[in-house]
């Protein structure tokens, strides 16, 4: 009686069978492999890209914030503020576009300047603007009024020279308001 030869069924591992390496010979019908050079990438030609479109230099103009800064400066001048300056800090700080800096001769004058700005900007004609935050109204030495895009710093003359915000923001464009 003839016996059948059993064929074994191997499970496939999903890999291709290993090839024998031949020293220096390429298999028939294939091009010889290139030598790999250590540490060098193959040289490629650089494609010329079209020139980039001209982009606007610096942050975009914010006319609403600029108008508010000028209005605050004018309200400060109504209360005899000295040396009123608007600093354009767009692109230099993330929390404001303009700083308005002004000085007063006494703490009562500085408090009165701040109060005038708050009262006038709160009127319906001005849009009912209220500050996000205020600091220093009680002492009147350095009052900060934060209107979001515009921050007003009102100082006693001596303290303004001491803190020197204009020197800190020396790169900012400035507009002296008379």
Structure, explained:
With 178 residues, the chain is an alpha+beta fold. The protein has a domain at 63-177: Beta Polymerase, domain 2 (2-Layer Sandwich). 24% of the residues lie in helices and 19% in strands. Strand 4 (142-146) and strand 5 form a beta hairpin. The chain is elongated.
- Shape call: elongated
Spatial separation of the terminal alpha carbons: 122 Å
Structural class of the helices, strands and pairings? alpha+beta
The ordered H/E elements are: HEEHEEEHHE
The CATH architecture of the domain at 63-177 would be 2-Layer Sandwich
Helical residues, percent: 10-25%
Poorly predicted regions are: none
Roughly what is the average pLDDT, rounded to an integer?
A: 81
Layout of SSEs?
Blueprint: H1 63-78, E1 82-88, E2 98-104, H2 107-122, E3 133-135, E4 142-146, E5 150-156, H3 157-163, H4 165-168, E6 173-177
Helix pairs in contact: 1-2
List keywords for this structure.
6-stranded mixed β-sheet, 24% helix, alpha+beta, Beta Polymerase, domain 2
Summarize the structure.
The chain is an alpha+beta fold.
């Amino acid at each position: 009686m003839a016996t059948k030869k059993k064929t074994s069924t191997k499970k496939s591992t999903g890999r291709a069978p290993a090839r024998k390496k031949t020293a220096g010979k390429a298999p028939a019908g294939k091009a010889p492999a290139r030598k790999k050079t250590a540490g060098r990438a193959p040289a490629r030609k650089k494609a010329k890209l079209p020139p980039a479109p001209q982009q606007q230099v610096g942050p975009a103009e914010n006319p609403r914030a600029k108008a508010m800064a000028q209005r605050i400066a004018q309200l400060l001048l109504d209360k005899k503020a000295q040396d009123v300056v608007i600093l354009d800090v767009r692109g230099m700080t993330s929390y404001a576009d303009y700083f308005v800096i002004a000085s007063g001769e006494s703490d009562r004058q500085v408090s009165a300047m701040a109060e005038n700005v708050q009262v006038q900007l709160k009127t319906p004609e001005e849009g009912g603007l209220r500050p996000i935050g205020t600091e220093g109204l009680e002492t009147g030495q350095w009052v900060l009024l934060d209107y979001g895009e515009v921050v007003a710093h009102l100082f006693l003359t001596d303290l303004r020279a001491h803190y020197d915000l204009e020197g800190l923001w020396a790169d900012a464009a400035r507009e002296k308001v008379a």
